[in-house]
Specification:
two-stranded antiparallel ribbon; 57% helix; Multidrug-efflux Transporter Regulator, Chain: A, Domain 2; Methyltransferase, Methionine Synthase (B12-binding Domains), Chain A, domain 1; globular; 13 helices; alpha/beta; 10% strand; 4-stranded parallel sheet; Rossmann fold; 307 residues
Length: 307
């Protein structure tokens, strides 16, 4: 490779990926195979940087890095082209990428004060919608990948979740939602202990004018259905992240659909949702692939209610 002369920092700046993610995608998934100098420094070619950039864009649109890491570049270009209308690109030089890297460092060092400062600045620079879609979503994805790869611990992920739960919860409470607005119940089903996805969709629903009832993590189907009845919810949204092989979750999902009134719509998304697609299809769940798609589904549901 004659053009493999870019350092990992250059690869990071040009691809929009953090140094940690590049290393993990290389080590765990074989996404790229950089050359090494005599002192063991990585050197990346232009082609590998393009590959990393395409992988970032494809994962941002909902594809799992484990499924696409070794695909040919032509196939990655096709995936990114198909997803482009759904997922706005975040360039490496954009403010969102700078905030992402700053927040990631604050999480790695467990610095709550710095993390809140970066989130506040990002809110001012990006706005409510931009904060969720351009920063919080990609940051959650990065943290999840690093945790699954063993680079950071569960403590780091819980640290970010706790901080965002407070920060996004405060933002959601600031929206003046009419008492006549449609209600949605948000939770993770029994056995699903990762809360960040649910926190994010709670904020997204509030931003598009829904009354939200956020229940938290690992709720049995009967309790979720009971909350839907009590709040007169027209929709229930579930976040499914981890684990992806829970033998009891299919039964919980089927029970929830049975407990809910027929007119209550069920939405489900998250990194682990694809593993349960057969059951989700069976119960007629709407399956948005990202926050933009989730918001569009809520808008469409609201329009149908008004017809």
């Amino acid at each position: 490779m004659t053009n493999a002369h870019h350092s990992i920092r250059v690869a990071s700046a040009r691809s929009g990926l953090s140094l940690h993610v590049i290393r993990i995608w290389e080590k765990r998934y074989g996404a790229v195979k950089p050359e090494r100098t005599g002192t063991n420094r990585r050197l990346y070619s232009n082609g590998e940087i393009e590959r990393l950039t395409l992988l970032r864009l494809a994962t941002a649109s909902g594809h799992s890095i484990g499924n696409i890491a070794t695909l040919p570049v032509e196939k990655l270009r096709s995936l990114v082209g198909e997803a482009e209308p759904k997922a706005p690109r975040v360039r490496a030089s954009s403010p969102a990428q700078s905030f992402h890297d700053a927040c990631l460092h604050a999480v790695e060092t467990l610095d709550a004060r710095r993390l809140e400062e970066h989130l506040q600045r990002a809110l001012i620079a990006l706005g409510h919608q931009g904060l969720l879609r351009q920063l919080v979503g990609p940051l959650a994805h990065t943290i999840g990948e690093l945790w699954r790869a063993g680079v950071i611990t569960a403590a780091h992920e819980h640290f970010l979740t706790a901080a965002l739960k407070v920060f996004l919860g405060t933002l959601a409470a600031q929206f003046a939602v009419s008492p006549l607005a449609p209600a949605i119940v948000i939770a993770t089903p029994a056995g699903q202990l990762h809360e960040l996805g649910a926190v994010m969709i709670n904020a997204a629903a509030a931003q598009v004018g829904w009354r939200t009832a956020y229940l938290g993590v690992s709720l049995p189907a009967a309790e979720i259905a009971g909350a839907a009845v009590q709040s007169k919810a027209v929709a229930v949204a579930l976040s499914i992240v981890y684990p992806e092989d829970d033998p009891n979750l299919a039964r919980e999902l089927i029970s929830l659909r049975r407990f809910l009134a027929a007119e209550v719509r069920l939405l489900s998304g998250g990194r682990g949702a694809a593993a349960y697609r057969k059951t989700l299809d069976q119960i007629g769940a709407i399956q948005p692939t990202d926050l933009d798609a989730f918001s569009r589904e809520l808008d469409a549901l609201r329009r149908r209610m008004q017809e």
